Amino acid sequence: MRVAAVELGDGEEEIIPGGRMAPDDLPTSYLLSAGYDGKAEKAFLRLYEPTSQQIYLWYDDTNHLPYCISKASPEELRKNKGLVGYPGFLSLEEEEKFDALRGEAVKVTKILASNPLAIGGQGRSGIRYVIGDSWESHIRYYQNYIYDRGLVPGMPYRVEGGRLVEEKYALPDDVAGRMDAIFAEEEAEFREHMREWARLLQCPVPPLRRVAVDIEVYTSVANRIPNPDEAPEPVIAVSFVSSDGLRRVLLLNEAGEAELPVVDGAEVVFHADERALIEEIFRVLNEYPIVLTFNGDNFDLRYLRRRAQNLAFPLEEIPITQGRRFTFLRNGLHIDLYRFFLNRSIQIYAFGNRYRENNLDDVASTVIGKRKLEIGDISGLSLDELARYCLRDAEITYELTSFSDDLVMKLMVILTRISRMTMEDVTRMGVSRWILALMEHEHRRRGWLIPNAEDIIEAKGGTTTEAIIKGKKYLGAIVRSPKPGVHFDVTVLDFASLYPSAIRNWNLSYETILCGHPECRGKVVPGTSHWVCTRRRGLTSLLIGSLRDLRVRWYKPLSRDPGRSEGERTFYDIVQSALKVFLNASYGVFGAESFPLYCPPLAESTAAIGRYAMTQTVDASRKLGIEVIYGDTDSVFLDQPTTAQIQKLVGWAEDELGIEMDVDKVYRYAIFSKRKKNYLGVYPDGSVDIKGLTGKKRHIPPLLKEAFLRLTGILGGVKSIEDIPGAKEDIRDLVESVHARLQGRDFDLNELAFSVMLGRKLSSYETNPQHVKAAKMLRERGRTLDIGDIISYVVTQGGVKPVQLASRRDVDVDKYVEYLESMFEQLLDALDMDFDELVGRPRETTLDSFFTR
DNA sequence: AACTGTGGCCTGTGAC
DNA sequence: GTCACAGGCCACAGTT
């Protein structure tokens, strides 16, 4: 009998779950997760019941089976001895599906098996390898189960007489009424979709009971973290912080001599032996429906499981199951916040790119304004310090989910509902998988065959435009050359969700682009040779389009509606951010080879429509008498437009392009050099908006950054053209003082350090850039280095040196003056100022002045 | 063989 | 996803 979890690859694990079975009648409970129980050979669901605040397991009662699809007939398949004799093979069922690529019905055969392994196998085995071509065979079994039963993770269900019943949440009448009014003009198909989306998004999210866990491990070598797959060292501390008030630190005190530390507002407990300590940890892990960690997949929970095995815990007493990359719990859900915050879409679109490094300290300090405690080596801490340090980590881990009224938990649940993925998966996987799941769900719901990647490429082919950047696949957005100089009263207009609007308006989808109907060939995407179907509504167009409309015309206005309570506004803001994450990724995925529905002409057409919208808008502005100073992808910077002119332009875009334009920002004035993606704008309140300028980049030495910040401070104080001479004086003083500091070597070495991230392993660099040189010097001194590490180096006379190995005398001061110059020049150019003059260097004799002498 | 100027390329960091 | 920048690396060609 198998007791241990058998690994099936990422995420799919033949888990033997533990915990409470759902009673025959379970009140309203939220579906959070699903899996496959290898022993029972059944799919199971994890339901969170908000009154008892517990997880209940519910097992499939419909005899749902794993399957994949073949285009061969049952008769043909029956001749395949390898298939018929395959262990676990059960039966064949003929079925009709819709082949969207061909636009016609297709007869397929469902191949049913007793367990998911028989379909997918391990390595190169499984039915899908025996039969050659197969469809829908790479979908995780529990995900298949969710699709086939039309389940929506994150939504409420009930168990009645042992059966799972949907708790049909209906939109309140007044909400439905207002929505109908707003979307009255939309196509019926869109309206239906939007109503269903709104039902999922509007349904309240219950408070989720959860505990954050953090462990500390003894380190025999200072600062060397023990390998969690070996777990050689004892667990010396663990802390819990929960939503129901638990704040507890468990400490290992084998000597039994120390005095129990007192930590404010927390309970501290000693354990004389590690086994008892771990047993207590497991008791808490089993008790909570949701366990939060920061990097628990790769460290805390992984270590605990291994450590328990080392201490000869019987497997069934370890509540942790281990996949190749992820670590799960038998009873509840494990959510690794490290993975969630690492997700680039979450980082950029949900948190505005506020945190840059993916460690707990950086994320927590920018998101909730709380830092880790600073310590040296773990093993050098007193029990008192250890307890405080460990508690703080659990505390900030918990608070990352609790700030702003549980914003992050709600965001996760909303993402779960949109994507149809389990909460564990949605917090671990990238946005392309979310979109894939959403698309798969919609295919299954409609009875469409989910195409394989090769099917789409074969039918639709590649791209026809040439990218500007070598090595890219197709032509992207337009960036206009800015008009250099200082411009007062600049208004920036942007398209509301340009690419999703393009996808919606032009009916873009993998099945509608380059369709087979001769009569559609005239509907050509401007700037390409691709045409789009005029007969059928594209699936992507419908999904993305309806989500877009809902965000732009419903949730975004609501999140800013002063007539709503603050709580409501926050919730609407979460929803609109979640939608934004989806929408922003929706175009890119179709241009990513790794995406299973990769469709180059689709991505290419989307970008082409974006270019068309931009060029048309610039033309229209010109005709309205507005000068366009700059524009990038979906925005235009207008020079002193009147309100009437703006209104006309917005109206034009709505009528001619079918896209809403919003006033994104208004600058009191803006400074442009001739560089694209580089400018400084000053808002009416004097705050400064900086884009692309070198002085803002994260790798720039603090001394230079500081100087740049002061420069922007001076510019922020400029109210009108009359203030400019004064500002110039201030800038002159600033440059002089920084220059003098450099020349006088009046600095700390750290202030001059460039901090550049290692983008790959040291061995795989083709060239030898500066940060790699410095990294190699560190490695020679025994530092271990990894992808993502930040290398700090200073530029010295003899080349670069890691900041740790350099001294102040080494510094190549002239080089730093050069950096200062090029950084300042990006703005001084536009102000007609000359850096050389500011630092007392004679003006270069230009050829011109030479001849006119 | 050493030096220098050039231009393509690599790398990291952003904008959108 | 593509576009754009800074800044340095590096191969190459031509010169001394």
From TrEMBL:
Q: Does the keyword Transport apply?
A: no
Q: Which UniProt keywords apply?
A: DNA replication, DNA-binding, DNA-directed DNA polymerase, Nucleotidyltransferase, Transferase
Spell out the reaction equation it catalyses.
DNA(n) + a 2'-deoxyribonucleoside 5'-triphosphate = DNA(n+1) + diphosphate
Any one Pfam family here would be DNA_pol_B
Q: Which SMART domains match?
A: POLBc (SM00486)
Which PANTHER family did the record assign?
Answer: DNA POLYMERASE 1, DNA POLYMERASE CATALYTIC SUBUNIT
The entry's protein name is: DNA polymerase
Task: Give the originating organism.
Answer: miscellaneous Crenarchaeota group-15 archaeon DG-45
